[in-house]
Amino acid sequence: MKRKNQAIFLILITLFFGCADPKTSDNQHIDLQQKDDFIKYATGFKVSSFDNIKLVEILKPFKGATQKLSYWLVPKGVTTPDSLAGKIIIRTPVESLVCTSTTHITPLDLLGVSDKLVGFPSTQYISSEVVRDQVASGATKEVGRDNNLNIEVMLDLNPEVLMTYSMTGDYSKLTPYERSGIDVIQNAEYLEETPLGRAEWIKFMALFFNKEKEADSIFRVIERNYLSTLKLVESQEEHPTVFSGTVYGDTWFMPGGGSWAGKFFKDSGSEFLWKETPESGSLELSFEAVFEKANKAGYWIGAANYFSLEALKGADQRYASFDAFTKDQVYTYNARQRPNGGNDYFESGFSRPDIVLNDLVKIIHSDLLPKHELYYYRKLDK
Q1: Looking at residue 50, what is its pLDDT?
Q2: Is residue 227 part of a domain?
């Protein structure tokens, strides 16, 4: 428990849920009920509750993890039960936090709690106009670069919560913040393998601000939009062939068939040429292997960060040999990229899969969405 809560704890130590079940009034037992109806698509977290205490479990904090993480959310002003001694306690609603991924920002925007974001690393990459204004005014501070936080700045800000992520499970860099009383929360949204599953992590964010109802309403709109477009696509008999990615060094990185991008291609009514691959991350292929399979493909979608066919060809002359190149059917996701490199596709796109799907359907089956204009994607100019 943080120092600033110790006084409250001493005052309220004799109080515990005035209307609590007799079984729990001794602070020794909490009979949790899982909220099965709260999560529909996400597989990375689950929520249980007892009265106004919630247990949030991150089932896989990082790829290959064998142990889950558990956070007990206790409302401010409520005494923490003795049975939770030694557990990770988060007092809600959170009033100040630092996030470390731009994908955490859009849920804050959608929930109307962006003003709680007091710090962020590499603020130049932020796309959200709301948060950019906060950075300009000094309300949101620069706290480092990428995932390397400036300890002095962090301790000076002293946010209630630091929300971060881990690729390896090495949490050692977080120890100084925990010792100073900052609650550290791991957000593992990036491991979700379906578009709606990842978008549903807005509900995870909402739990820390007591905004579950708002998150559920927002997600229902996104879900309805996504499923509506999906239903339109199901009527299509033609499935144009699609491939993606570009070469880095000697390797062509292609989304796996089981990846977030791979699922989008399937749902957009295209024939993704690598759809049978099970990988949820990227495939590493040779140029020759890609050309052999995709040289006659109808669409090249996701051609890295190029802004013209000429620039793409300048990077590798062999790109011009693909049919999609010669027929001007090359698209990529930098329509909302800022001059300093921040790309909104990698910020809000994960929270708005309905818009991403509409973009892809507009490219592949343009007649289905005649009024939709590309939002994240753009066709490469000659």
Answers
A1: 86
A2: no
